[in-house]
């Protein structure tokens, strides 16, 4: 079996990468190799039985993902080694939203998103792209709780705002700089089709850095 060695740089590179990914996800300060090695050297070994069991179950589920198994092959596991108790249940399929897009039924869940990978374009270019790509007109565009564009707002339809790059528009409206580490922005879009019917869509991931 492979044993962890804090003095092995190849082991520590994995630990640093994975721990910093988790830190970034939970807004925890990230650490470099030196500090991570110091932390790893002070860890008190714990009883590994439950950890090993849970890790094994997680690996089984990962294999199913890679093998593209159907949903009913996956399992949620509930274990308590003190009782002992082992219970498994099938996960619930995510709620699907159905809407009409480009004349066809479009089905999406909370796991889906739209991708816009055109670099940093102006608001006017974005609206034109969206109408051409999805055959829908944007009625509202927002970033978090901030409205960037609203069809019925004279201010958001002004020539000045239409000429702004999306990233510039976000910073102007929110009055906050964008984190330089971000490679994309999460935008929410409200749209309607040619018949004036609302089109419900997932969030949009706007890649403004190439």
Describe this structure in words.
There is one protein chain. The protein has 210 residues and is α+β, with helices and mostly antiparallel strands. It has two domains: 9-89, no CATH class; 97-206, Ubiquitin-activating enzyme E1, UFD domain (Structural Genomics Hypothetical 15.5 Kd Protein In mrcA-pckA Intergenic Region, Chain A, Roll), CATH 3.10.290. It has six helices and ten strands, in the order αααβββββαββααβββ. The strands form three sheets. Strands 5, 6, 7, 8, 9 and 10 form a six-stranded mixed beta sheet that branches. The radius of gyration is 24 Å and the shape is flat. The model has no long low-confidence stretch (mean pLDDT 91).
The CATH superfamily label of the largest domain reads Ubiquitin-activating enzyme E1, UFD domain
Contiguous runs where pLDDT drops below 50 for at least 5 residues = none
Q: Total helix count? A: 6
Total discrete domains: 2
Task: Assign the structural class, choosing from mainly alpha, mainly beta, alpha/beta, alpha+beta, or little secondary structure.
Answer: alpha+beta
Count of individual beta strands: 10
Order of helices and strands: HHHEEEEEHEEHHEEE
Mean pLDDT rating: 91
Query: Any idea of the CATH class of the largest domain?
Result: Alpha Beta
If you consult CATH, what is the topology of the largest domain? Structural Genomics Hypothetical 15.5 Kd Protein In mrcA-pckA Intergenic Region, Chain A
- Which shape, going by the Cα principal axes? flat
Shape-level CATH architecture of the largest domain: Roll
Distance between the termini: 42 Å
